[in-house]
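[audit] Reproducing an earlier prediction to check determinism. Same input, same settings, fresh worker. If the tokens differ from the archived copy the diff job will pick it up downstream; this log only records the rerun itself.
[audit] input (210 residues):
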Amino acid sequence: MSAWYLEDVVGRARDHPDQFFIPSERERRACAVGDLVRLHFVLRNPSVEGPRTERMWIEVVERLGKDASVTYKGVLTNQPAGLAIGTVIEFLPIHIAQTIVPKSHPDWLEVGEKAALVSERVLEKGCKARFVYREAPDHDEDSGRRLFRGDETQEYVNEEANIRRCNVGWLVNRDPTLGPVFRNEVGSAFERENEDDNWTRVEGWQPPQD
């Protein structure tokens, strides 16, 4: 028996619709040779201190069938425990947790794989960000993007448990209106009164000082 299995991310997204977001079924069935997709390798016997799941990028090298019967073969581009870079993996659309948009695509974001700081209020069921700003990143993996509902108190924001680090690409999949906002310069800020309103730039806004 293999030391791991691929997670059915469709089932996980169905069980957690407001917390776990994956590409659409159309996108997951339309991957081509050369595309990069992320799969989740669930370890059958994880160590006490190690992760239960390893999230790995796979380059598609073969596409078999089409539409509802499509399957893929790919090779690992990074190395999880127990597997080597270049290992061939067979997988299905139900295993594709994320795709990388190519640079030539209008939706491509340079910081798509980096992290944003997000208020837990934004991630509540049925909620979206209503205030977004960009500051200079804290480290290499940080995008500098910060997302809030806009009604958080300073006390709430200062509580570490109320702020989560989220993948930028994941956030844009959840709310595509964030894509254009995220492309703006350091020091920019945007707000909207309701989730479905257009974003408006906040003129004269200054980022918070440490």
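[audit] rerun output stored. Observation attached for the diff report: The two ends are 52 Å apart (CA to CA).
[audit] end
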